[in-house]
Write a structure and sequence with these properties.
Blueprint lengths: L2 E3 L3 E3 L2 E3 L4 E2 L6 H9 L3 E3 L16 H32 L8 E6 L9 E6 L1 H11 L3 H8 L5 H10 L3 H26 L8
Antiparallel strand pairs: 1-4, 1-5, 2-3, 6-7
Helix pairs in contact: 3-5, 4-6, 5-6
């Protein structure tokens, strides 16, 4: 049986390259199955999609399909990057704003998640690094005094210590719940007439 070379392969003293036909009796039958499973060769017969024809190794449909399969992940990455650029353009940052855009990739159930851009001040970045340099207990205590959502987001995204992540999440929950309570109490503070 003849085989089609899919990866460079040396048999005996002959080197076969992608697309070369390997003649009968060059590869032992016991060895051929392992080479097929490893992706070095495939069986070459009339039904093989890789069989040679007058115009070349692959048909135009096969070439188009292979190109589409190779280009799809690149197009997806390009679309993701274009979205990040669009998000940055929405921010309309200037050098005088003093804000620094930082993109954070959120993981979603083992898959690649979306990229979120947050704008932080140099002071917020300094605060993040200050806490990251502390041990876990000191960092957890310091987090309880943080009132910046950006600092908490950065700490949760960048610090790998479980204690710090949990403390940042807890402090964020506390900030949001206290903001909700303040907003609720403002709704019920109507002026009363003094008669």
């Amino acid at each position: 049986m003849q085989y089609l070379c899919l990866k460079q392969l040396t048999v005996g003293k002959t080197t076969y390259h992608l697309g070369d036909t390997i003649p009968d009796d060059v590869i032992l039958p016991a060895r051929s199955e392992k080479l097929i499973r490893s992706g070095y060769i495939s069986k070459l017969d009339e039904e093989t999609e890789y069989s040679k024809n007058e115009s070349g190794l692959f048909t135009q449909e096969q070439v188009d399909k292979m190109i589409a399969e190779a280009v799809t992940p690149i197009k997806q990455k390009e679309e993701e990057l274009q979205q990040v650029v669009a998000d940055l353009n929405k921010c309309k940052l200037t050098e005088n704003d003093g804000m620094i855009p930082i993109s954070i990739k959120k993981e979603a159930d083992g898959e690649n998640g979306q990229i979120t851009i947050i704008l932080v001040t140099p002071d917020e970045i300094q605060q993040v690094f200050s806490i990251m340099q502390q041990n876990a207990d000191e960092g957890s205590k310091a987090i309880t005094t943080i009132t910046s959502e950006n600092v908490l987001i950065l700490l949760h995204a960048t610090d790998s210590r479980k204690t710090i992540k949990e403390a940042a999440k807890k402090q964020a929950d506390n900030l949001f719940s206290s903001n909700d309570n303040i907003n609720e109490s403002k709704k019920h503070n109507e002026a009363t007439s003094m008669n």
